[in-house]
Every structure is written in C-alpha cells, then in structure tokens.
Specification:
Elements (H helix, E strand, L loop, with lengths): L6 E2 L47 H24 L4 E3 L2 H4 L10 E4 L6 H9 L7 E3 L9 H6 L2 E3 L4 H16 L4 E3 L21 H6 L3 E9 L15 E6 L11 H19 L2 E3 L10
Parallel strand pairs: 2-8, 3-6, 3-7, 4-5
Antiparallel strand pairs: 1-9, 7-8
C-alpha cells in the first residue's frame, strides 16, 4: 500500500502529538487493548452475547450512561478538546429523508470522537456502533456498552445474532456509526483508506450515509487551561447525506458511496492532496 504526497490548504493546522504514524499500513492497531485479568464479567462474543440487552440491570445503567454522555463527556469534549461542530444544517434540512435512519461515517482520531458525532447529529438516543470485540473485556467495558457499542462477534453463530440485532435496531429507526478506517490513530490529519465492507450495512437497510470528519485547531487562550499545549482542539464537520441507487449493482454502489464519502471527508478537512487512496480495495 503506497503512502504518497500530503498537502493541506494554507492555514490548516497540523498538530504534533509525538506519534510515529505508520506509512505502510493504514490499518495497524496503535493502541493496546487492555483486557482484564480476572474472569469476572468476561464476555464470549458468540451467540450467547446480548446484542440487544433488555435486562433490568442494563436498562438501569442506561440512565447513568445517558448522564455520563450528555453531561460529563459533552463537557469534556467542549472544554478539553475544544469541540466545535460545523455543517449541522446538512442534517437538519434532510430530516424527512433521514426519518428511517442513517449511517454516520467518520475518521477515528480521539477517545470521545463517537460522542462528538452523537452531539453533531443530535441523536439523544444512542448511535449503535459496531466495535472491536476485545474492548468489551477491557477496563472500559461498561463505558463501551453504554456508549452504544455492539461487539463484532468472533463466531458464525455470533454473527447471526449480531445481524438479527441490527435488523431490530433498524426496525426501531436507530442510527448507526461506523469508523471505516477501522482503527484509531490519535489526532491524525490525513484520511486513511475506507473499508468498502463498512458500507454494507447502510446498503442492506437502504439508508443514507452521512460523512463527517474531524480537523484540528491550535490550542489557544482559555483552552490551554484544559489540556496540554501540543494537544489540539478539534472541529467536527458534517457533510451532505449520500444515497444509494438500489437499481445499480451492489458492488458498484458500495464502491461509489465509499469513494464519495472519502472525497467528502478529504474536502471538509481542507486537504488538497491526501497521501492514502480512498478505498481499501484500490490499494
């Protein structure tokens, strides 16, 4: 996979957070998954996992999770990360076309980026987020589940239950969030290739894709009180929904929407020449 020339528009801030990003593999996992040593609370990601959890304990914790997300995390995003949101009108003006659900796609660049997307599209219910399963046996398991995370199963039986759960979520007109870059690279500026398969769920349910992208600002003024100087503030840009044409072949439409989403993300991030190709299959 070739890493090429990188160029941004004049005035675009490129943070230096001391990370040596790979140039040969855009899907390399840079963050270690910290799995709990004790067996208590461990999950098996097969057909026994509650991909839809209707238990009293889970629903009770949802109340606390709502408070954590919309008060504590929203505050932290606003002041520590300096979150600003641009382009909300692109969602507001298409409400009728989005009434049956949508799938958001975004670059994966900091710990609370999913909550920023939630704030941007004003979904006070959770966005359902397919996530790397091993995180759910880590120290942030509670946080991941009540953030809307659903682990991607490790068995065929688990995949069947996972798919049934998302059929039900779609029936309930839930919105979905997928990070098609696959893994998180903190405060990374270029847009990495997107995995075409990540768009299959949106095609299956015939729901529009909303591209979003984080860009960065130099930490100045009062924001220096809430974070390290070399850690940037973030701006989240919301793009226009992209719709599938179900009269055309599935493979062609997945490729088209994936490439269009990548192009939109690159443009909103004010990148003139992106070093990575748009789509995994093109690499």
């Amino acid at each position: 996979m070739q890493f090429g020339t990188f160029k941004v528009k004049d005035g675009v801030y490129i943070p230096d957070v001391g990370i040596d990003y790979p140039t040969d593999d855009p899907f390399r996992r840079l963050l270690k998954v910290e799995v709990e040593d004790s067996s208590e609370g461990k999950y098996q990601f097969d057909e026994t996992f509650p991909y839809i959890d209707e238990s009293f304990k889970f629903k009770f914790n949802e109340i606390l999770g709502f408070f954590v997300k919309w008060v504590l995390v929203a505050f932290w995003n606003r002041f520590h990360f300096g979150l600003r949101i641009e382009g909300r009108k692109n969602v507001r003006k298409r409400r009728k076309e989005l009434k049956d659900g949508a799938m958001c796609v975004c670059n994966h660049v900091f710990i609370f980026d999913a909550f920023g997307v939630n704030q941007a599209v004003k979904r006070f219910g959770k966005l359902k987020i397919p996530m790397f399963a091993k995180h759910f046996n880590g120290k942030n398991s509670w946080f991941m589940r009540h953030a809307g995370g659903v682990p991607i199963p490790e068995t065929r039986g688990g995949i069947r239950k996972f798919n049934e759960a998302f059929d039900e979520y779609h029936r309930r007109k839930e919105w979905f969030l997928i990070f098609p870059e696959s893994v998180r690279w903190n405060m990374y500026v270029p847009i990495r290739p997107l995995k075409v398969g990540a768009f299959s769920m949106a095609y299956k349910y015939d729901i529009p894709v909303i591209p979003l992208v984080y860009s960065y600002r130099e930490r100045k003024g009062l924001y220096r009180l809430f974070g390290r100087r070399n850690e940037p503030c973030v701006t989240l840009h919301v793009g226009e929904p992209i719709f599938f044409d179900k009269d055309k072949p599935r493979k062609d439409e997945l490729q088209r929407v994936c490439i269009n989403s990548h192009e939109c993300m690159v443009k909103m991030a004010s990148i003139e020449v992106n070093p990575w190709p748009a789509v995994e299959d093109c690499c």
